[in-house]
From TrEMBL:
Domain (3-hydroxyacyl-CoA dehydrogenase C-terminal): residue spans on this chain: 199-296
Location relative to the cell: Mitochondrion matrix
Protein name per Swiss-Prot or TrEMBL: 3-hydroxyacyl-CoA dehydrogenase
GO molecular function: (3S)-3-hydroxyacyl-CoA dehydrogenase (NAD+) activity; NAD+ binding
GO CC terms in record: mitochondrial matrix
Keyword field contains Transmembrane helix: no
Amino acid sequence: MSTSIARHAIKEVTIIGGGLMGSGIAQVTATAGMKVNLVDMNEDILKKSGSSIQKSLERVAKKKFSDNPEGGKQFIDDITGRISFSCNPEEAVQSSGLVIEAIVENLEVKQKLFSALDKVAPKETLFTSNTSSIPIKDIAVSTQRLDRFGGLHFFNPVPMMKLLEVIRIPETTDETFNSLLEYGAAVGKTTVNCKDTPGFIVNRLLVPYMAEAVRMLERGDASAKDIDIAMKLGAGYPMGPFELADYVGLDTMKFILEGWSKNYPDVEIFKQSEMMNKLVAEGRLGRKSGKGFYDY
Ligand code: CAA
Ligand code: NAD
């Protein structure tokens, strides 16, 4: 199948999970002209998803339509008009060419969701996960469509970050993979091809770096603030490791390290962080809960 045919196949996308990532993925997908069904557990969460998309689009429109506020309003209305909200994933997938899962970083919960969706989604619908750390194959085996399964790993904040990691498992067909690359190009991202290895490309390097920064803090080598300043001014990173961990979400960071330390107990750099676990237990999840390593 030619890639242009593949792109036409994806006119509607169902995104499951309307948190930090799912809202951003919904925004860029609708901006690219596709219809979006955004699914989460309840109406209150979906209301928050809708308002975070609205706020993010206002930031985009302020720049893009700086001398034409009416045009900016129309731009936002057109995009939000393509997004529907739902608490019923089985119903939402009925006419979608692509499903992107962005729910909590937990294998059993993801498997349960995909197993249910596999029974009701059209046969040709492609299934993908935005997981940060779980092997795509481990999620895909909960379905009968390993050939139409892959990973689409976006970066936070989705509207700003230009990269999309596209992951294939051995069973992913070229047709499926090309459709995922086409989708990535359609939403304006630069894609890189990844195998199903732990953390793919970016997180394999980034997560151990952030975990080591926490270990530096635990050892008393330097303060969080000084480590952040050092990495911004000395290494050119836009955020220091503690700012970034708070931005990603300490619960997500904890789930990643928990999974890796269980699956790869001999890999030193995948070790869990006691300090991070303690912060999560105290409800300090980072920016999304108003406090993490820092207070917001
Ligand atoms: N939506 C729309 N526009 C946004 C935005 C958003 N969510 N966030 C930032 N912007 C735009 C706005 O235009 C903003 O200007 P206004 O404030 O006037 O609206 C402009 O970007 C600049 O933003 P800021 O002044 O807030 O700050 P900044 O210049 O530092 O940029 C940043 C923000 C892009 C987030 C930058 O700090 C950055 O790149 N940080 C690192 C992010 C990163 O590394 N992400 C990867 C995390 S790892 C991951 O995602 C994978 C995983 O699996 C865990
Ligand atoms: P989040 O906590 O902000 O959002 C997750 C959302 O999923 C919540 O709104 C929750 O209510 C919903 N949810 C949980 N279980 C559900 C279910 N069974 N059905 C429907 N909705 C459900 O998390 P996030 O940061 O958006 O992360 C989502 C996924 O994306 C995770 O797999 C994470 O590893 C990955 N990811 C996160 C980042 C990041 O920087 N935060 C970056 C890339 C990938």
